[in-house]
Amino acid sequence: MEWLSLAITLVAALAASGIAIWQVRTQRVRQVEDFYVARYWSLLDRLSTRALRGVDADTLSEQEEAAIRLYFRLSEDEADLRAQGWVSDDTWRFWGAAIHSQMHRPPFDRLWAETVEDSDAGRDYEFRHLRELWHDTAYDPAPSRTFRRWLRRSPWRRPTPVRRLTLPRTTIAPDRAGNSGEPR
Fold first, then answer.
1. Which residue has better confidence, 86 or 150?
2. Dihedral of the CA atoms 98, 104, 109, 114 (nearest 10)?
3. 107 DSSP assignment
4. Does the CA dihedral 116-121-124-130 come out positive or negative?
5. Angle at Cα 127 formed by Cα 126 and Cα 132, nearest 5°?
6. Cα distance between residue 154 and residue 151, in whole Å
7. How far apart are CA 171 and CA 44, in angstroms?
8. Is the dihedral of CA 32, 94, 88, 149 positive or negative?
9. What is the pLDDT of residues 7-36, one digit of tens each?
């Protein structure tokens, strides 16, 4: 009887430890993602409305051009983190599609072509992931091993189904005395 009680206690302790490790890792992934989102917004804050809209894309200031080139480096870093398992599936689906879309908009597309030329000449990063993402919006650099894929999953981050907003109906109901009442 002692062995059974010891085995149950040991299994419960191992399960609790595993859940705690998973929760800590999930929290760390969220912190990494939040950090990169903050960096993204700080770069976009450097761009003018004209640059964000793609209007007069040929007349960028030096600061705006630098911000866009830094955006490419930030995006490559995000893809590298995804390859290492530090970006969740849900977040990458959103980030990957957004990066692909942004890279195909003016003035980002023009600067991306220049960045690829610089990269090919050895003056900039290799941009291995962004080159793939440029051609394929569904590109995912995530590790394919089953255990790492399982760790990336988080039941707390599942997208909720889209629901229509419905307002409750108000009805006029008689009160206890049978008089017409206020809307309920």
1. 86
2. 80
3. T
4. positive
5. 125
6. 8
7. 49
8. negative
9. 888 888 888 888 877 787 788 889 999 999
Residue 69 is predicted with a pLDDT of: 95
Which residues fall within 8 angstroms of residue 146, CB to CB, at 6 or more apart?
none
Q: How far apart are CA 142 and CA 103, in angstroms?
A: 20
- The residue whose two tokens read 């770069």 is 43
Both tokens assigned to 143 = 């590790």
Question: Are the beta carbons of 29 and 157 closer than 8 angstroms?
Answer: no
pLDDT at position 167 is 43
Which pLDDT band holds residue 146 (cuts at 50, 70, 90)?
low
Question: Exposed e or buried b for every residue in 108-136, given b needs 16+ CB within 10 A?
Answer: bebbbeebbeebeeeebeebebbeebbee
Query: Contact, 60 vs 107, CB < 8 A?
Result: yes
83 within 8 A of 141, measured Cβ to Cβ: yes
